[in-house]
Design goal:
4 copies of one chain form a homotetramer. The first copy, chain A, has 7 helices and 15 strands. In chain A, the strands form 3 sheets. In chain A, strands 9-8-7-10-11-15-12-13 form an 8-stranded mixed β-sheet. Chain A has a 4-stranded antiparallel β-sheet with strand order 2-1-6-5, with no helix packed on it. The longest helix of chain A has 14 residues. The first copy, chain A, is globular. Chains A and C meet through β13 and β14 of A and β13 and β14 of C.
Chain lengths: ~240, ~240, ~240, ~240
């Protein structure tokens, strides 16, 4: 599998077979032999560059049935929980699978991401999306997470929760986390993190901190600089806590 | 090396020898035998918990002579460049070394971080800080980066620049990046990213996007919820661009 | 002239004559006799409430050919320059006239607002808009403001500038301001306020402060509270300075 | 009463008598004869400029026992309720009196501000502060506002509420407001505006909108531009609603 980009920055996934575009065909042989940086050309002259694929390219190109977490929020979770290669992560629910792929890309083959999703239709799509990648550090459970995580006690570095009722999994998250491990709970609404805050405390978590991040793009056009007037006013709150 | 935490959440690094505190001593044997989750006690009864150390714990505890990048900015860089395990990263300058440790923790043993720092006194401190860790995927150059990166053409996934005059390294960053690779340039000032924006374009970079992130903490005290009135109004702008 | 509101919160200006709606007619007599709080009804039964008109109602209902300053920015200017009833204000350019009406409503009959606008088509529309109001404390100049303000030295409390090249009027603004008076310069772009900042200093202004305000709406739906995801990421920068 | 400013921008109120400074005395006669823009000098040569006083100068110089509303919030209230000269305003509680003076300065002699404050010690200080001004459009009630506003039905343009339990006055605020009039409720906490939102609806208010404003200063030093890193992360939420 390779990712190619046209001159208008549209990305396409190509597999090791002939690729048909609106402006002609790229032969199978060209695709198989191509390496990053090569320019491929259809018989009608349309050009594509083979790029080093990035986890965000995969996330952008994958099928999905629901909204995804934005990069800024995935970045906050990564930065404040300090996950890295080799980390063992559990998340619930899987949703569109963007956080699953993002975390799997960070923890690598020495780490692992288990992801729990109750909806079968979501799981089917995510499985398709994973099949198109090289990740073999992912376990996907089509399960009601309130039945409990399958992980052992004190075995996990970070639990990420993105559920309508996050409190239902907090006690069990505490059980599976290592001492020093983090939980991160993503909630769009104030009422949610207010409950999460209480339940985290009761479960024994420390250093409970609720954060809201936002990102503004700055545009420079014709030597004029200003923040972009379009901006996401809110994505969600992320509540962090540590088992300590 | 282990990290222990007291009841007031103060963290200490302990090595495999007797540890002296204001309230007594923890014997060498106890420290050597301790595993994550264990509680250690001084002869005067003060208690410490051994925690699974986190990259942020190391960064918090390391010596430094200059300010560090905040987690939210490291998170933005990670999220929007899509780095992960196995990524090859070059950064310049090293500064306090917080981004160096943060990236090294993500790319893992299959990846690598090369870091360039012109100031010898900074390099000395960073070396000490690295010695206290297990990272063996770091190369530190005490070098004026305007002499050029030592890396080969098309070999790097992400170049991170945090220099007073970032433009001086942009052409060479383009050279060493893979097609599809990203540059991220951190600058506190508007005038800096305005120049960076122009030079990135001239160097051939595409998808130039300037972002400013900020994070607000929400506090809940006595069942009263409000954003914290203390907040960093600005850390820096991060300019992202892709070699494509 | 009265303002009436239907059940869907659509506002209409009615004058002392029959008012035709899609759902019937309100007789002239009913309109003439109506006072604030009365409910008027068409012969087909559609109901309207007569409200105490507000300056924002006028601004919302007035014709315009260009974008208007948002209330949050008018509020910042009012608050940080400390204008009130009786203040003498000069503004340039008039634009859609929203700031003109807003300021005229604050300074009242003991104050005055002079407004300079170079475009004749804008001036025509604004004149129509003013004719529909009771304001008699407004002077509108269809003039290139670089020819100089007509006001006397040391006579004005606040000068508001919303021009593509605000620097052209700063020297003359200093002349007409009282000692202790304020200038407020609205600019969408960074490059503009950078020049304004220098020129204000050269003109003799003190306490130069550049401010950027923004407003986020919080929504509560079905007992769920969250900031609205739609938000203006940027309107403009306002540079304040004082003649002192 | 006049306001004078020294070269370091420190402001002083002077009355029609000799003024003593650390660096000498300004004679009574000089003060009496001085007009705006004049420079006064002590016998030791220290210079002061007489400025056109601004409502913010008064607020800055007044005594107080509690924190004050910031200009940006007073600006939001002014802008979104559309108050102006001649408006009739009721506020509760008075607190430090900054909003009282700010509103009195806007509504002028044709308008009026009634302010209710339960704490006698606050009222004493505010009375002193008002005595130093020319305002004769203010009525101050040292009264528990839950006993009800003294104003007549349908007589008020805007009610401003800044109380720990704002809901207690909302029904009565509805009574005294004109049809088309606004209420603005300032609350630091989420839990407060959640209750306010419900009670406003029950009282019959429409167009309930909760807003949070913030202001960031931009600094330019040595030709380097950046937002100030110090910033108020939160002052309060303002809930607006209209009687319609």
């Amino acid at each position: 599998m390779k990712i190619i980009v046209d001159r208008k920055n549209r990305k396409y996934v190509v597999h090791d077979k002939e690729f048909h575009t609106e402006k002609g065909v790229i032969p199978e042989e060209d695709i198989i032999n191509a390496t990053v940086g090569d320019v491929l050309e259809t018989h009608m002259g349309k050009k594509f560059t083979v790029i080093e694929p990035n986890i965000n390219d995969y996330i952008e190109l994958m099928k999905r049935k629901c909204s995804i977490l934005l990069p800024q929020d995935l970045g906050l979770i990564t930065a404040f929980t300090g996950i890295g290669y080799g980390s063992n992560i559990v998340e619930s629910g899987t949703g569109a699978g963007s956080s699953l792929l993002f975390f799997a890309n960070i923890v690598g083959p020495e780490g692992h991401v288990s992801s729990y999703e109750i909806r079968e239709d979501f799981v089917e799509i995510i499985k398709e999306n994973i099949d198109g990648t090289d990740f073999n550090n992912i376990t996907l459970y089509n399960q009601d997470v309130t039945e409990g995580f399958k992980e052992e006690d004190n075995s996990i570095d970070m639990v990420f929760v993105d559920l309508p009722k996050p409190s239902e999994v907090i006690m069990d998250a505490y059980r599976i986390l290592k001492t020093g491990g983090f939980i991160a709970v993503y909630t769009p609404y104030v009422e949610q993190f207010q409950i999460v805050n209480i339940v985290l405390g009761k479960a024994g978590f420390k250093h409970i901190t609720i954060r809201e991040g936002n990102v503004r793009e700055i545009e420079i056009k014709n030597n004029k600089t200003r923040p972009n007037s379009r901006m996401a006013g809110h994505t969600g709150y992320i509540t962090f806590a540590r088992k300590i």
